[in-house]
Every structure is written in structure tokens, then in C-alpha cells.
Amino acid sequence: MQRRSQDEIFASYNWWDQDNLLFRITRERCDYIESCIDRAFGREALRQQTILEVGCGGGLICEQLARRGASCIGLDPSAGALEVARAHVRQSGLAGRVFFQQGLAESLPYAAGSFSVVVSLDVLEHVSDLERTINEIARVLAPGGVFVFDTINRTWLSRLVLIWIGERLFHRFGLVPGLHSYERFIKPGELRHGLQEAGFQVAEMVGFMPRLIQRRLTLAPGGPLLISYVGYAIRN
């Protein structure tokens, strides 16, 4: 397959295809988000939150969090992805709990301290300016607010698995040519330093590894940070 730009890929991506890896791991990602919110604010706190998702794509995470009782705002630069997200949330009857807006992670269109929870999953390795993105997330978070993230480590193994093998052989799972840029993968130490410089206290970073859960192959927190990793940080 011919490599396309990431803008082209995300504008016509099969977000809700049941074989798509992002679709398959939505439940485990939202379980992790909920666990981070519980640890920061107490049990059942998810239902009290208006959550900003930076880089919402086709709305997978926002819709699942809304099903769990949260209100969500999803921001994404791709008009095509947002069109899919809006259509699906209307079909799901959750339009009253989810709002989608076009915008950039590097310039969030919200006032300082607007949110207590911001999530950004599989996004940090795609932004054009990581430092500015982290600073913007810190700006819109209130003190004590939670930032939940996952991203990809810049290692030979991540390049082998996700690009050399994944993007050549596993197109049906959404790993299409051009989806990733190895140079934008982020080492955990780099992300930790950036978060601390922006005024965060990093609470956790753990691997996001393949697991067989209820006879279903997915990804879940735990293990080494060799390929993907997940974590959360608290705004000072």
C-alpha cells in the first residue's frame, strides 16, 4: 500500500471498525482513565467530571466515557474524523453528553483552569510541537487536575513491531502505511521531563502490553515500557 500523510489517514480512518486496534482497546483505555480519576479524586468521581480529550479522532474514548456517566469535550484537527464522531454519538443517543470541536493540541481554545481531567491517547506522538502541547494541557487544567496519556516509546522494538511489521502486514487492524513517524515517538524520560517542566507531578508510567482478557486479545497496563506506555500526572 502507498504511504499517505497522517492528515489523509485520519480524515478517512476506520475508527469504528471492530477489527481496528484502537476500537479493540477502547474499554481497557477507559478502565485505566477511570482508575486514575478514582485514585486522584475518590471512587465514582468519573461521573462528576467534564473531561477534555485532546485528539479525540472518531470519538471512541469520548463515547465510552459518556456511557460511564462523564460529560466529554473532544478536540481534534481533522474535520473528517469529527464528522464520524458526531454522527456516531448521535446514533448512540449520547449527543447530550459529548461535544466535539475542531482545534489544535498546540493551541487549546479554552480558558486557563477549565478542566479537572484531560486525556490524550495515541496523540502525543503525532503533534507537531510536543512541548507546546504539554504546556497547553497544563494551562487548561486546574491545580490538582489529572492528565492521563498513552504514547509510544522510541525504541528499535517499537519501530519493528509498529512500522516495519505492523504497517506492512496488519492493515486490517488499522496499522496503515504512514500512520506512525518513528522520529516522533517519545522516550519515557523525555515525556517525564516535559511534564515536570510544565508543572506536573508524574504519578505513574507503566507499559501498555498485549493481554488476553476474557478470551479477547487486547492491550492493558503493566509490564515494561518497551513499545507503548500509559500513565497519568497531577497538575501542581
Rg over CA atoms: 17 Å
Helix- and strand-based class?
alpha/beta
Biggest pleated sheet: 8 strands, mixed
Q: Report low-confidence residues grouped into runs of 5 or more.
A: none
Fraction in beta strands: 25-35%
Report the strand count. Answer: 8
* Order of secondary-structure elements: HHHEHEHEEHEHHEEE
Helix content percent band: 25-40%
Mean pLDDT: 93
Global shape: globular
Explain the overall architecture:
Helix content is 35%, strand content 27%. It is of the alpha/beta class. An 8-stranded mixed beta sheet has the order 3-2-1-4-5-8-6-7. α5 (79-91) links the parallel β2 and β3. α3 crosses α4 (60-67).
Q: What labels would you give this structure?
A:
236 residues; alpha/beta; eight-stranded mixed β-sheet
What's this, in brief?
It contains eight helices and eight strands. It is an alpha/beta fold. The chain is globular.
Please specify the SSE layout and strand pairing:
Blueprint: H1 6-11, H2 21-24, H3 26-41, E1 50-54, H4 60-67, E2 71-76, H5 79-91, E3 98-102, E4 115-121, H6 130-140, E5 141-152, H7 156-169, H8 188-197, E6 200-213, E7 216-221, E8 228-235
Parallel strand pairs: 1-2, 1-4, 2-3, 4-5
Antiparallel strand pairs: 5-8, 6-7, 6-8
Helix pairs in contact: 3-4
